[in-house]
Every structure is written in C-alpha cells, then in structure tokens.
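PT: before anyone asks, these are the final sequences, not the draft ones from last week. 653 residues across everything. Please model them as a single complex and drop the result in this thread when it's through.
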Amino acid sequence: MHIRHILKTSISGLRAHKGRSLLTILGIVIGIMSIIMVMALGQGAQELILDQIRGMGSRTLSVEPGGMPRGIADFAEVFTESLKDREVEAIKNKSNVRGNNEIAPFVYFNDTISYGNEKMRTMIEGADQLWTNIMNIQLDQGVMFTDGDVKQMGRVAVIGSNVKTELFGGSDAIGQRIKIKNINVKVIGVFPPTGAKMMMNIDDIVIMPYTTVQKVLMGISHYQAILVQAETEDLVPAVAQDIKLTLRELHNITDPDKDDFHVGTMEDAMKIIGSVTSALTLLLVAVAAISLLVGGIGIMNIMLVSVTERTREIGLRKALGATRDNIIVQFLLESVILTIIGGIFGILAGAGFSWLIGLGIRVLGGFASWKFFFPLSAVFLGVGVSGAVGLVFGLYPAQQAAKKSPIEALRYE
Amino acid sequence: MPIIEVEHLSKTYLTDDVETPVLHDLSFTIEEGEFVAIMGPSGSGKSTLLHILGFLDEEAMKGTYKFDGKKMDDYYEDEIARIRNNEMGFVFQAFNLLARTSVYDNVMLPLIYSGNPEKKWHEMAMEAIKDVKMEHRLDYFTNQISGGEKQRVAIARALVNRPKVIFADEPTGNLDSKSGQQVMEIFQHLNEKHGHTIILITHETSVAECAKRIIRIQDGRISSDRKVANRHNSHDGVKK
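LR: through. Structure below.
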C-alpha cells in the first residue's frame, strides 16, 4: 500500500471542504487549548505558592498541637491543648534540642477591632519580636514590639497596611489606641503593603506580643503553634527529630502514631501544597477534557456526513481495486489530520492565552513573581491526545465507509 | 482456458420481503480475447449480470461463477480487490470520474492501489492516456472536458493496469453519436491490437454489432447467443 498517495488523497478530500474542515477542528482547538491553559496556569500557581513558602526561609519549622492530620476530621485536633509553656521551655533547652534555634510561640484568633467609629474584622496574631525576622518583613512606620513587651504583656500592636487604611484612613496611626475585645491597644508600628506570605495576608493582620494575646485577649494557656527557626538549614531534620523525641518523652508517648502534636517543616508544607495544586490541576484538566470529547464527537459527526456524501467516490475506489483497509486508512487519516491540525492550533492558542493571563496576573493582580510556564510535555500531550481523538472518533466513520459494497455505492444518488 | 465461466447462475433481489427474480439459470463461457456485447431491454437483468461478472455485486446468488478458473466464492476479500484492480477494468455509463481532479490523476487512481512499482506509474498512465488520445488534456479537470472526452479518460483509467477484461456498462449511453463512435473505435482497437477481452452492455444494435459476439437477455434468460456475421466497423459510425 502506498501510504504517501493515500495521504495525498486524504488531504485533497479535506481541501475540498475547507470551511467545514475549519469549523470541525475548532472543537479540537478549544479542547486542547483549555487543557494547555489549565496545565500552564496550574503550574504557575503552584510555583507562585511554593515561592512564597520558600520566602519564609527553609529553616523554619512549625510545631502544632494534635497528630499529623490525615483527613478532614483530624483538623479538629487543632483544638488540642498539648502545647503550653512547659513544651516551649523543653524545646528551648539545648540539652533536648540541638543548635542555637529561635523559638517563637504563636496564637491567633479572629475578631472585630475598632478605632472610634471605624470597625474591621481581622485576624489578631500573637507572636514574639522574632516574627519579623522569620517572616522577613521590615516595618513601614514605627517599631516592632520588644522582648520587654512580651514579658510584660504589653498592650501594643503592629498592624498591616489595609488595617491602617480601614481604621485611620490617611491620618497617622502610630500612638493611637485601637479597641480589641474592649481592651485598648496602642499601635506602635505599621507594615508596608506586602500581600500574602505563608498563606496569611500580611496587609490584613494585627500582630501583638503572644503573651498579651494568649492571656489577656484569649484567656488560654496553650499555644496554637510554636515556630522554630533552626540555626542552619542542614539542622532542620535533626531539630525536627529532637523536638519529636523531647515532646514524646514529656507527654509519655511511646507509639508515634499517638502523638498529640506534629512537627511541620517547609519541605512538608511544599509537598502538601504541591499535591493539592496538582490534584486541582488534574481536576481542571479533566473538565477541559470534556470539551475535547465534545470536539471528538463533532469530528465523528462530520466524518459520517462526509462518508455519506462521498458514497459514490468510495464505491468507485473499491471498484478500481481499493481494499477495505485502503478505505479505512484514507478516512482515518482524514480525521487524524484534522485533529492534529486542531491540536497544533490549540497548543499555540493555549500558550498565547496562558502568557496573556500570566501578564494580567503580574500587572493587574500584583503577583510580580508569577512565572509563565509552558511545559514541553504539554506539546507532546496536545499532539498525542488530539491524534488519538482523531483515531478513536474517526474509526467508526471509516469502518462505515469501508463496509460499502461497490455496486450499492455506485448506484447511490 | 475460458476467462469467464458461468453455470446455472440465478439471482433474486429481496426488497422488503418481496422476491424479485432477476436472472434465471444462465450458463455461458467467454474466452480470453473475445469482444462480447450483452443486449437486452431495460430491466432484463443485463446490468445485474455485468456487476456479478465484474465482482461489483457481492451479494448472494445461486450457481457458480468462475473467473480465471477459480470460483468467486473462493477468493478472499483482498484478492477480490486485487482482481478488480489488476485483472478487470470498468467503464460506466455515468463515467464516474473524480471531480476537481485532473485527467492525469484520474488515470493514476488504480495505480495507487496496485502493486506496480511507483517509478513505472507515470509511464503506465501516459501509455493508457495515449491509447485514448487524451494527451492534450492531461492537466484539465474532469469537469472541464466534454462527455466523449470523459468517457475516453474513463477507458484510460480502466486500461492503466492492463487488465485481462474490460467491462463497459452502456459506455455510449450518455454520448452523442460522434463521441460514441470514437469510444467504440477505441474498444475495437484495444480488442484487436492489444488482445483485451471486452464485455459491453448496450441496447443499441449498431453498438452491439461492433462486437464479435452478442448475448441477448430477455426477462433474465439468454434468448440468443451468436457470433456477429456482418461485423460493424465503428469507422462507419454508430447510430443513435
């Protein structure tokens, strides 16, 4: 069989109906385009989030109450009160946990804060003075609270830029007193507009000494997390292990599965984020694939019309010696050529649109670190998938064509 | 050895459970090199017979048909395709050329499906085109040439693989008498000079008499089968 000539035949068959061929591939173009876009944007979003976590510093560990969450139900364990001052002291003790680490207990709650008649619902976080180091943020105005404020449960706060605008507008916030749970708190510093860091919007935040938040505002004696910054990055696994052993001993735990706390490293967080965004991307790809399926059915529809229209041609070819396989290959090639052309245009359009959307996210969305991703695998996937769609949805029409008996076909009007 | 042997061939069409007998118990043989005209009025079954002989009608029939010494039922599907391609050529009343395709490409069509080496294709196509004197229209599309020219292209296409038998179904039916005469001249030439077996359907006596033998069919039966005594020379024209 001379495939080159059958290819030529297929191409001339398609060129005879240019308009129809173009409309038919539109479905494939849209299907492949959406898959490429979802993949490119999904990867972009993942990298953006991971970038923010990396910005936290890979030296940071977070000790949290409750066992490692294995499902939605386990998140209730966040309310476990297993981390208190005793645990903080034990972790600070160098004979328990090696290295010169920074240890910062952490509490938070959501409430409405007010200044005069201005009210705003926000997150109040209790940390220590090291928080700015761990988050790597400089203050815009004023100063961070000090070790003394922490020790004396100072009623002072540093606020995010949105909080400042909401409550004070254009006027100066430093030295003013805001009300949190009916307690007067003095504003001593303001953060610059920063955006999200470690999944917290710094602009909407109020930071106070953890002692004040814990004892005065929340009236609790436990912590919601203990942030630990290891002396060096290499020490992170050892520090995590030391903390686990220390706390197990302190809590008389022999079976690690029964831990009433868990230690998260940035690496863990990145893994979790990575798998979540991958799952989301996969879901969106599946949705996009439905449009490809519709496109495939469109191809099948048009090929069936084409086969019926060209019944006489098929009969003639069989009368002149075309085998069943020759006819199948001719019509399969037509649908595969259609879908692969559609796939190529879909890849180009998908790349173009993801680049444009990325530009929009950078310029309008304010995420300057958004990167444009175009995985090479998407190209192979796009061409491969569209070709496969052509094969699958072209097979039935091609078989219909090959089944025609020459004389029936030649008699067809 | 006869190229075509038909024994007790009967054929019945079944439409909506109504049986319509078309051919009754036909038996005849055709030797290589013959030029046979099959004549009969419309509905006599002559086209059905030609389609069976040309392996175009694949539906069931009674009796046996041997082509080239082998029963039709014994050929595999791909063999049938090869025989249609290599051993048989078809000329239709309605030409059945590919539209929007050049004369040259139409004649090339059977070569694509043949086992002939590709480098010989051009030569083979040109030879067939010269046989029908269509060299001057090589690149014309088939919708740009006259009816007589179309039929000559169709004959070139039937010829291109140098088949043993050429089947022609009312080849002059759609042509004026002058074009019809040219077509019949080509058939006579092919039969006499190249030895092609030609089996042709017609209901025009002047066309039939260009052949060497006439089989008449009436109501699905052979009513006469005789040699042509005064062979009509196509140079003298074929009457409409």
